[in-house]
Design goal:
It contains three helices and no strands. It is mainly α and 105 residues long. The chain has one domain (3-20, 33-101).
């Protein structure tokens, strides 16, 4: 997996995140953080969005007056888009790992 493909994928994730109005799951780090830290932050962000969507759904189902169906649907879609983007990154990482492992020595 080339560096250009990774940068392109990160740019696409940021664009999708901005379009959904969610905080960016992958942030540029000026302190030189390792990939594992960035991956953990991304997964934590997806988890937070999913938990928030679940809480909003529960609040709507129990009849909370301050939660509308539109808010629930938008929150659920944000969580879904974020999860799908993370899933695609995982798929690319697995493909890259398999390509490296299949290289002749």
């Amino acid at each position: 997996m080339s560096d250009m493909n990774v940068n392109l994928m990160l740019a696409q994730m940021r664009a999708m995140s901005a379009a959904a109005g969610a905080p960016s799951p992958v942030r540029e780090s000026t302190s030189g953080s390792e990939f594992g830290t960035l991956l953990k932050q991304s997964i934590d962000s997806v988890n937070n969005l999913q938990q928030s969507a679940g809480k909003m759904t529960t609040a709507f189902e129990t009849g909370a007056a301050n939660v509308s169906i539109a808010d629930v649907m938008v929150s659920s879609q944000k969580a879904n888009v974020s999860f799908q983007a993370t899933l695609q990154v995982r798929n690319k990482l697995v493909d890259a790992y398999q390509a490296v492992m299949n290289m002749p020595m």
